[in-house]
Design goal:
4 strands, elongated, alpha+beta, disordered C terminus
Length: 130
Amino acid sequence: MVMKLCNHAGCKTLVPFNQAFCEKHQPKPMTDDYDRYAHRKAVGGRYFKFYRSKVWRKLSYSYRLAHPLCERCQAKGLYVQADVVDHIVPIRVDWSRRLDESNLQSLCNSCHWQKTKHEDPGASPSSYGG
């Protein structure tokens, strides 16, 4: 039988080729009642519904057509294609500005990740310049 190393980082145990992990590192099975989509929907609530709405998809698509480059990269003199339309003031902070085009910006995935990482979810709308 062909053997390989366990997929767990640093584990040197040999397992059959058709298995991913040794007995020690077997992942815990997910319960049948856990549904990722339902969990995200329950946790996200109205934000989850908004980002899946036809209104948002049309607005973000038209905004990205009008602004095809990442606005943060463009300010640095770089020309990078935008992947995401982002709310400058997050909708969790100011729900009323969710469809306001002056609150949108086109970002590449890298800039969007950095912005999201550094946002303070408990910040007040005044801290976003709004």
